[in-house]
Amino acid sequence: MGQLLVVRLNGFRRRLAACRRGASIVEFAFVLPILATMLFGVLMYGNYFFLAHNVQQLANDAARSSIAGLTSKERADLANETVMVEASNGLPIDIARLQIALTDHDQFVTVRVSYDASDSSIFRVGLLPLPDPVISRTAAVRMGGL
Q: Could you tell me the maximum CA-CA distance found in the chain, to the nearest angstrom?
């Protein structure tokens, strides 16, 4: 009986030494935090770049629409109206956090749109370092054609 127990224990010990399932679980436990951090990074930076792209598009469209104005005030009103209309058409942008500035230089109109995204979900999570939450983009167009 004792010798049979020793033979069974030796067989169990050999099978246990050959089994690699536990090693896979331990390796996965080490790699999981790195993979999760990379996934959150892709999602958070993707969301940030999406917001930055939307702000740039608002600046581009505002600059394009402003050249229809005859005076500086009329150009500023057209730019503001364009930004407000487009920002309220399904963009994930809070209109109250937008700032628009228009400047006239010689033959150019420059529109600067700034958006404070600090209240956005990507900045509230705080898992990864992100760029400045105030996203500012500029667009310039030439007045009067060529």
A: 106
Give the CA-trace dihedral at 66, 67, 73, 74, to 10 degrees: -80
Q: Which residues of 120-135 are buried (b: 16+ CB within 10 A; e: fewer)?
A: bebbeeeeeebeebeb
Q: What is the mean pLDDT of each run of 10 residues along the chain (146 residues)?
A: 66 70 83 92 91 95 90 91 90 89 89 92 78 93 76
The closest of 122, 98, 126, 100 to 111, measured between CA atoms, is 100
Determine the pLDDT at residue 1: 58
pTM of this structure:
0.77
Q: Running DSSP on this structure, what letter comes out for residue 130?
A: -
